[in-house]
């Protein structure tokens, strides 16, 4: 009896030692660091009530707009209307450039611009949204408003903090590359936050379940263009500072974005050069806040919309 108990104790001790050793070893692999595997959303302070009223956790996207806040979801396209669907993050959701673009286009006939931007989303979210919801809106042209942090290192894990509740989801895809809500993996948020080993297991499990979906942004862009029937273009937004003043990381983000879009072979407009014609002080004045180099002021959004409009009329419409 004692031998049996000793044997069981040794097995348990050995297993525990193995778990701790594996945990220790995995801590040397940056890809399994928490911040490298999640997209954190914290709704608090002055913006808490606004986010609470407009956003909700999503098993597909991590977070999404509530239906009441997203009229684009339920607007039926009228006969003879040419519909542009704009995907993007907060620069698109809160920036008014899609609205100003629609004002330009209304002078040319029956055009409609739907703003489907959602704060915090990135290229992978745009892809999921297009296949899950966007195509149901029957767009004639899909525009991706691409910020310079949209392509590198997006994550399939979304961690959402809402009303003090933390939830984690790993969005899985079916064989056609569409979100499969039934197989979305619910993750223990505490373990996912604390343990490298747990993150490794989740990552390995999901990789086997992703139905061959390539995490390469070039392939994702190509799949998006295929979903849109070839009617898609990307608009690349710069940082609000002269290009020659970009630091090494900013320049790398810019070059990565431009390289991946070109490699995907889709139509694109890079408005960096147009804004680079402005001086450093003018570009700083275009920021909605002095330290915010990403979000454009209302005046800058009008300029942006005018540039996009002229390009669309020349190349796409």
What this model shows, in words?
About 14% of the residues have low confidence. This protein has a domain of 212 residues: Rossmann fold. Strands 5-4-6-10-11 form a 5-stranded parallel β-sheet. Strands 1-7-8-9 form a 4-stranded mixed β-sheet. A two-stranded antiparallel sheet has the order 2-3. Helix 5 packs across helix 13, helix 6 runs parallel beside helix 9 and helix 9 crosses helix 10. Helix 10 links the parallel strand 10 and strand 11. The chain contains 13 helices and 11 strands. It is of the alpha/beta class and 317 residues long.
Comma- or semicolon-separated keywords:
317 residues; four-stranded mixed sheet; 13 helices
Strand order of the largest sheet: 5-4-6-10-11
Radius of gyration from CA coordinates: 22 Å
Structural class: alpha/beta
The oligomeric state of the chains shown is: single chain
């Amino acid at each position: 009896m004692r031998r049996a108990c000793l044997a069981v104790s040794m097995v348990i001790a050995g297993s525990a030692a193995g778990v701790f050793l594996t945990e220790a070893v995995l801590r040397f692999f940056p890809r399994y660091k928490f911040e490298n595997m999640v997209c954190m959303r914290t709704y608090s302070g002055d913006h808490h009530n606004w986010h609470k009223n407009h956003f909700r956790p999503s098993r597909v996207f991590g977070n999404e707009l509530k239906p009441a806040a997203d009229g684009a979801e339920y607007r039926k396209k009228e006969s003879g209307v040419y519909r542009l669907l704009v995907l993007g993050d907060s620069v698109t959701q809160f920036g008014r450039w899609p609205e100003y673009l629609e004002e330009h286009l209304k002078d040319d006939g029956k055009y409609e611009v739907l703003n489907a931007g959602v704060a915090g989303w990135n290229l992978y979210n745009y892809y999921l949204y297009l296949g899950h919801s966007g195509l149901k809106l029957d767009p004639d042209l899909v525009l991706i408003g691409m910020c310079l942090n949209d392509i590198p290192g997006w994550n399939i894990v979304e961690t959402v903090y809402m009303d003090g509740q933390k939830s984690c989801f790993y969005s899985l895809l079916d064989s056609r590359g569409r979100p499969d809500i039934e197989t979305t993996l619910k993750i223990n948020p505490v373990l996912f936050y604390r343990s490298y080993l747990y993150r490794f297991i989740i990552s390995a499990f999901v990789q086997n379940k992703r139905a061959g979906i390539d995490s390469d942004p070039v392939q994702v862009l190509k799949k998006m263009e295929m979903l849109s029937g070839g009617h898609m273009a990307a608009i690349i937004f710069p940082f609000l500072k002269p290009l020659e003043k970009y630091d090494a990381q900013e320049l790398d983000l810019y070059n990565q974005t431009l390289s991946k879009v070109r490699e995907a072979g889709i139509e694109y407009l890079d408005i960096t050069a147009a804004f680079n014609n402005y001086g450093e002080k003018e570009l700083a004045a275009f920021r909605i806040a002095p330290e915010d180099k990403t979000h454009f002021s209302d005046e800058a959004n009008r300029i942006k919309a005018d540039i996009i409009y002229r390009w669309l009329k020349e190349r796409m419409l």
